[in-house]
Amino acid sequence: MLYTDTNAPRGHTYPAESFTGFRPQKQRSKEKLIFNCQHVDLQRCASLFPHIHLHLKDISLENIAIYNQNVNNIKCYLGRKISDYFPFFLCSKTCFGTYCSIFNLQMLKSRAILTLTLQPLCKFWHLMWLNHTFILYLCQIIEKTIKIIIKTMTTHISNRVQSLSPSQTLAMSQKSNELKAQGIDVINLSVGEPDFNTPDHIKEAAKQAIDNNFSFYTPVPGYMSLRKAIAAKLKNENGLDYTPEQIVVSGGAKQSLCNVILSVINPGDEVIIPTPAWVSYVEMVKLAEGVNVLVPAAIEQDFKVTPEQLEAAITPKTRMVLICSPSNPTGSVYTKEELAALVKVLAKYPDVLVLADEIYEHINFTGSFTSLASFPEIADRTIVVNGVSKAYAMTGWRIGYIAAPLWVAKATNKLQSQYTSGASSIAQKAAEAAYVGPQDCIEEMRVAFQRRRDLVVSLAREIPGLKVNEPQGAFYLFPEVSSYFGKKYGDRVINNAADLAMYLLEEGHVATVDGEAFCLPGYIRLSYATSDDNIREAMRRIKDALAKLA
User: Fold this and answer.
1) Are residues 310 and 456 in contact, defined by beta-carbon separation less than 8 angstroms?
2) pLDDT of 94 strictly over 60
3) Average per-residue pLDDT in the chain?
4) How many CA atoms lie within 13 A of 506 on its CB side?
5) Contact (Cβ atoms closer than 8 angstroms) between residue 279 and residue 169
6) CB-based contact 106:67 (threshold 8 Å)
7) What is the C-alpha to C-alpha distance for residues 193 and 528, in angstroms, rounded to an integer?
8) d(CA 187, CA 216)
């Protein structure tokens, strides 16, 4: 026997036995009514009120890591808007209309609880849609959607992506922006981005490129004119001899780094990374199915790994050593003598490649910079990564490059040809202007960053409990904060640096980043790539917030 409801969407028909077990709750409210559907088949519903809460229980998610995802985030898993799966969430203004105000999936001992809140938006709600058939139809669609989510997460997302950790720097920045959207005055010290505008002569070159119709596909490794300009820069500033064929331009230094790692690392190869380290190094090695070998260097050694630590970390499986100087997140800079000591160790292991991230080269307060590629003992197996983002305030232009042995350059060229091809034509012409044009803008920004470094260090040292070094480059401060662990403010307990970073954001309205994101717990990172006034106010807020902890 079939039951047909003419008011149901698309005239759906259901077996009469589907309605067995309906149990209206005895307690009714004009505000809301809760329905408990205790089985996966979702056959148990109750009578109807304008406000409907459906609790769908016992939907097993196995080992799926899904939690606290609202309706806006569901599309991250499905690749579609939630309204594509629930078409009746959009009101037609002629019949039925609701919207989903709560849509949460939470892990609870391998079981999910989904809560869906429906609010009436149209006067015809009571007349046309308050019936058992609609509720059953609704439950069936929800169940179908959940199955799609489960299938998508378990079947269609690769293991390599599931192994990645989300970027905590971007997450904190997003949280900061959410608070700003609520009208809260948040000072964001979580993002490593110069606050200067791109110099005018670079912008003019980009405009001219548009007028000159540089709007077609570019060569995969970059325009020859740009690669020649990079080679000239490396020769003049660093004393390095590279041909244009040894240079590959990519969509930012991040892509350049990933290109190299994916091109030379095989599953099981070990990559030595001194920590603290930039958040993406470890994740890139994961993508290549390599093995991260982390070598910690705490504040007592100025966050710089020693030759003894390096040699102890090298094994027969070591394929690469990755060194960033000046460093993100610490601002530490290896001197020529310190690099020479590391090179002495590396010279013993001719099969070990060296990846030198030198993106902060020009934000350097030591008065000199030494590239790892300048040491002849390892020059033939050193890959330099650099770009225009930091030195020329061109983060959004997305131009980075590698300078490498020819075989590495050819390998990255081959890889890049298959998944991104060449970088933006307009951005490349802008980068070329950056390298061949006036360089006084670099020094102007460097002087400003050094002044800000001095300011933030002096203010941080006035805060009890912070252990601070003096960064020699980049635009980050990386204070040790463990003295605050175990302290409280009201009901809030600070157990680690993540707790402290969130406390500073919510109580002090200053966004920082937990040091664990950089593989060294017990620290937080502050970016001073902002105005002097912002630095003063941010450090005042941090000091006041920390003073409340007891």
Assistant:
1) no
2) no
3) 79
4) 8
5) yes
6) yes
7) 9
8) 40
Query: pLDDT value at position 82?
Result: 35
Query: What is the domain class of 215-438 according to CATH?
Result: alpha beta
Q: In the numeric block, which tokens belong to residue 447?
A: 């002087």
Residues facing 400 on adjacent strands: 250, 387
Six token digits for residue 388: 């225009």
User: Whats the size of the chain, residue-wise?
Assistant: 550
Q: What is the pLDDT of residue 124?
A: 36
pLDDT of 404-449, one tens digit each? Answer: 999 999 999 999 999 999 999 999 999 999 999 999 999 999 999 9
Measured in degrees and rounded to the nearest 5, phi and psi for residue 389 equal -60, -45
Note the helical H segments in 111-197. 125-128, 132-151, 159-162, 168-181
pLDDT at position 543: 98
Q: Are 168-196+442-547 and 215-438 the same fold in CATH?
A: no
CB neighbours of residue 246 within 10 Å: 24
Other Cβ atoms closer than 10 A to 141: 16
> For 172-187, what is each residue's pLDDT tens digit?
777 888 888 888 999 9
The predicted-structure confidence for 294-350, as pLDDT tens digits, reads as follows 999 999 999 999 999 999 999 999 999 999 999 999 999 999 999 999 999 999 999
CATH tag for 168-196+442-547 (out of 3.40.50.10860, 3.60.130.10, 3.90.1150.10, 3.30.230.10): 3.90.1150.10
Write b or e for each residue in 3-20: b if 16 or more Cβ atoms lie within 10 A of its Cβ, otherwise e: bebeebbeebebeeebee
Q: How confident is the model at residue 145, as a pLDDT?
A: 54
DSSP type of residue 155? I
More confident residue, 107 or 382: 382
Domain range summary for the chain, segments of one domain joined by +: 2-157, 168-196+442-547, 215-438
CA distances from 498 to 299, 513, 517 (A): 18, 8, 9
Q: Per-residue pLDDT averaged across 507-517, rounded?
A: 94
467: left (phi over 0), alpha (psi -120 to 50) or beta: beta
How confident is the model at residue 178, as a pLDDT? 81
Sign of the C-alpha dihedral computed for residues 338, 340, 342 and 345 taken in this order: negative
Is the peptide bond preceding residue 276 cis, with omega within 30 degrees of 0?
yes
CB-CB contact of 244 with 450 (8 Å) = no
Confidence (pTM): 0.75
Task: State the number of CA atoms in the 13 A half-sphere of 522 facing the CB.
Answer: 13
Round to whole Å and give the CA distance between 119 and 125.
10
C-alpha–C-alpha distance, residues 248 and 422, integer Å: 9
Closest residue by Cα to residue 504 from 527, 524, 477: 524
Residue 115, C-beta contacts closer than 8 angstroms, at least 6 positions apart:
53, 54, 55, 102, 103, 104
